[in-house]
Amino acid sequence: MGTLIGLRSPVGATYAAVAAEHGIDVAPAAIDRAFPGVLRQAPPLAFPGLEGDRLLEAERGWWGERIDAVLAAAGGSDAPAPTALHHALFDRFADPSLWRVYPDVPAVLRRWHGAGLRLAVVSNFDRRLQPLLEGLGLADLFATVVVSSSAGAAKPSPQPFRIALESLGLSASQVWHVGDSPEDGAGARAAGVRCLLVRRP
Hints:
The structure is a single chain. With 201 residues, the protein is mainly alpha-helical. It has two domains: 90 residues, DNA polymerase, domain 1 (Orthogonal Bundle), CATH 1.10.150.720; 100 residues, Rossmann fold. Helix 1 packs across helix 4, helix 2 crosses helix 3 and helix 3 packs across helix 4.
């Protein structure tokens, strides 16, 4: 998110539309103002030792808490939103049609893949990412996809990077990480991996 893919429309537009379907009136612009701060204050999206349905439940619960916080900060409702709204938004952002691949990405990834480089994704996200990459036509380029929720730790922890290195069968000195956030740089350095940061507008 921010390196390979981004949303086609602002978060606020989708949140407001789905919230309206559940009887909550909130302005998209207010959600867009509140969302970054809520994410910055959130605990890591990481659940050590959880798998299967328990992991999915934890992921939904984590996002449900963020949804409640965003709606409260945006003036929508101080009361917790219905669980049905939490699930509807969680499922909505699993839809590849909400996302786009940045125009510069496919050719670069295909060139590297074609040259024999082993590619991986390390993301502070959840299990929805693999199906999203499949739906966006990128999944076949990656040897592994590591998400923080199932890795049990989130960047800037080095743990997700170490999991990716083990899966790739490579040492840290053989790898570059390309990211877009301070967490990318700090996590990569902690794992001994060189990092390049993409600075998108």
